[in-house]
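Protocol step 6 of 9: fold each sequence in the batch and record its structure tokens directly after the sequence line. For illustration, a two-sequence batch is reproduced in full.

Sequence one:
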Amino acid sequence: PKSKLAMIYALGALIGFSQSLLTYVAATFFTEKVGSDDVGVYYFIAYVVVLIILINLHKLTRTWGKSNILRLAISGEIFMMGVMLASISPWLSVLALMGYFIFDGLMAVSMDVILESYSRDSSSGRIRGVYLTICNCGFILGPKLSSWLLGKFDFSAIFLLVLFIKSIVLLLVIFGLKQVNNGQPIPRITVPELLSRAWKRKSIIKIYYISCALEFFYGMMVMYSTLYLINSGISWDNVGSILMIMLLPFVFFEYPLGWLADKYWGEKEMLVFFLVWQAIATIGLYFISSTALWVWALAMLLTRVGAAAVQVLRDSYFYKRIDGADVDLIDFFRTAAPVGYIAAAVFSAILLRWLGLREMFLVNGLVVFSAVIPAIRLKDNLSEYERNHSA
């Protein structure tokens, strides 16, 4: 129903905005509280918990229902923000922010499961493109605002704003998404059975690896790109401008590419092209010695052109391979986010013993490049044009 989709899109805008307020400043918060740039361990612990939850999420969904899981996740985020605002202990604040990321991971997957309930395979690219575009319209505003808030106040101002937005989101979910497909039968399946079922579907495994590489990219960028820019002498105000500019492709590219995948080209060829683009652009960051705002804004923008394209194309491809009853496979697919972040945290923790923050761009680009091979081997989805002319 269009009314439900409209509600999901509205929630996506608010969620994207609230997420972006914290995403690129959280690493700085961890650094201030613990006195070290090696913040990967905190992301590692949080996303290991997210991974365990997501692997078992289909069991919780079967018992509690999709909308109730979403309410629980958002309520948890609100509680963790309250703890951070009330806490005078640095370590309690660190634990609360880790808890927030855990509930945020659960919330993101719950939204995916609910959106899939209203998606048809033939229009999956467009629906995902609209949803991601709306989320990113909200997301693009956050980095500049959070940078401004940090310049004028401190982290408490950001936490208070996130708490307010998430409270609005919870009210909209309670009254606007009542019992969303809670009665849909979900098969009983163990974790080994889930992994076996996913492994037997080779296209799912290949797009899963591509998704892991993309999430690794995000993890490395979230943890270290802002720290690198600040350590290079770029002001918070300029960092906020760089982050806002770099996120523009997520607003302008994702729906058109989803539309092209549905109508004319399918996802495979575009995935290969944009993975190569993203890898080259990311490796290129290593060679930048300038601290000029426009240089970094353009360079970061180019990396996100590739990332935005890969994000919508991997979603479009995957959701055309499953349907709303495959809650277990959706849960498995979305473990790519914690797996990618965990890998980024582990790799960076090891490599930072010998390398600097700058070298992380090289590592990041090479990992993205590794996803080109499974992309080439994907079995392509036929577009509407290809289906109509295949006979």
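Sequence two, same batch, same settings:
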Amino acid sequence: MGQTVNTKAIVVPIASLAMVAIGAFAHGLATPVALALIVVGSGMFFIGALAPSLSEFQIGPGGFSAKLRDREREMQATLEPDAKSLAHTATWLTGSAESGRELVEQALIETYLRWPDAKRDGATDAVRKRLVDLAPPPAEEPRSQASSAAGREGIAPLSEALAKVAGLPVDDRSALVLQLVEGFGADAVGAISGKDPAVVGDAVDRGAKALVSALGLDSEGQI
């Protein structure tokens, strides 16, 4: 009798290489989704068992690479219009553009692995939910000469404002960013963050007061 072939042992490396190839050569590293594919593909050699999306695919005429390519194209086409908005949200949640890019990459990876659910719930909102869930804890921001100067002039540089927002508790920070920076209503923020709209309102109020105080302004934005 012939030996039973371990399909998973064959499929996982093939899928991993296909994802890396698609990300590296089809769209280049400039596209966040393509970079996410490279990260997922590389890591899948080690965490393949944790990738629930693999169980959805069966070897057929199209092969694994075709199925993964279809998912990648669909995801990119769906999220591309909101790419800048998602990057902007992540930058404010983390305090810097570089950290924001890393947060977006993590959120895209998790969204890719759960793409059928993300499509059903709303792909862009699914990524935003992951951004909020993965947002780092409050950052410690030492007082610098720049912050002192900002207090004297009454105008905080963007980097200072980002740092102050990143120092807020995650719930207050995410509510503040989604509602005051991105312009979502309390109901939409509640749906994204999983909070009651009334709780969102309280979080926005706390975050705004803490930010005004940290920037050395009064309630009207003056010294």
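Proceed to step 7 once all outputs are recorded. Observation for sequence two: Confidence is low (pLDDT under 50) at residues 49-61, 142-155, 219-223.
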